[in-house]
Amino acid sequence: MNKIVFGFDQEFSLPSAEYEQLAQRFKDHYEFVQLDANTVPNSVSLENAVAFIGAPSAELLKKMPNLRWLQLPSAGANHFAHHPNLAKEVTLTNSSGVFGVIGAEHTLALILALIREIPLYVKQTERHLWHEGDRCLQIDGSTFGIIGYGDIGSEIAHRLKAFGARVLAVKRNLSRLPEDADAVYTLADLDTVLNESDFVVNVLPLTPETKNLFDAKRFAAMKDGVQFINVGRGGTVDERALIDAVHSGKVGGTALDVTAEEPLPENHPLWDLPNVLITSHSLGVGPGKYKRRNDLVAKNVTNFIMGKPLKNQVNRELGY
C-alpha cells in the first residue's frame, strides 16, 4: 500500500486528532506513517512512500524512490527546488500564506524600532545611560520600496499605508497595480525604486536570480541614510557590501531577520554595526501560524488523495 509520511519535529506537527482523522478517513487507500523528524525506525520501509509532509534530509529522500509530492513546512523552498535527491517530477509545495500576518507584524516592529532608534536605547539601557537620540525618522510621508510583493510583502504594505507611507512594489509580473501599492515595478527597474525609497524592505526568496542581488552597486543606488530591512533570505544580500554601506553612512540603519549563515557566528561583524537590529530568523514565530499551516496540510493531503490540484505549488525552475 502506498504511504503518506509525516516527518514531524518540535516545530512542525499536526494535532493528533487531525492526524488520526486523516489516517482513518483514507485508511483503505493509503498507509499513514508518522516519523520523529528524519528518524526512520528499522521496522519502517519508505519504499512505497508517495508523499512526504516536512523537510526531509538528503538521506531520507534517497529512501523514497517513488515520491510524488513533498509538502514543506516553510515558505522558502530554495533548498529543495533544485535538490539533487529530489526527482524533477516530484511536485513541491510550500507553506506560503501561513506567515503573512505574523511576518508583516514582525517587519513593522523592525521598522518602528529603527525609526525610533530603539537599538541605541537598548544599548544605553544596558549601560544605564540617559541620552536622547537625534536621528529619529517617521513612516508618515516616507517612501517604502517593498522588494518581493507576495503574501508577506502585501501584508507589510497594508499596514504601512495605515501609517501614511508611500509604497513602491517590486514583483515578478506587472499584471496589475497591487492593492496598497502606489506604483509597481519589476526587478528590471529595481534601481529606480531604490533611488526613490527612504526604506528598502527586502522580502525576496533566494533563487539564482536573487542571489547577492543587493550588492555594492545596489547599495550605491539607494538614498543616503536609507533604512535597509531584510526579512527575505540572507543569501540575497552581499553582506560585505552591506557592512561597507553602513560604515560609510549610505545605510543609516539596518534590521536583519535573516543572514547568509545561520546561526550568525558570534564574531561576525554584522553584530557590531551601528544602529543594527538582528532578530535571529524569528519572523515566523507566533501562535497564528500553526492553525493556518495545519489547515493547509490537511487540505493538501485531501487534494492529493482525491487527485485535485495542490495548493502552493512551487515553480522548481524559479525556486518559489
UniProtKB/TrEMBL annotation:
Molecular function (Gene Ontology), one example: NAD binding
Occurrences of domain D-isomer specific 2-hydroxyacid dehydrogenase catalytic (ranges): 57-315
Keyword NAD: yes
InterPro entries, per database record: D-isomer_2_OHA_DH_cat_dom, D-isomer_DH_NAD-bd, NAD(P)-bd_dom_sf
Record-annotated D-isomer specific 2-hydroxyacid dehydrogenase NAD-binding domain positions: 108-281
Alphabetized UniProt keyword annotations: NAD, Oxidoreductase
Domain of life the protein comes from: Bacteria
Keyword Repeat in record: no
PANTHER family: 2-HACID_DH_C DOMAIN-CONTAINING PROTEIN, D-ISOMER SPECIFIC 2-HYDROXYACID DEHYDROGENASE NAD-BINDING DOMAIN-CONTAINING PROTEIN
Family from the record: Belongs to the D-isomer specific 2-hydroxyacid dehydrogenase family.
Name of protein: Phosphoglycerate dehydrogenase
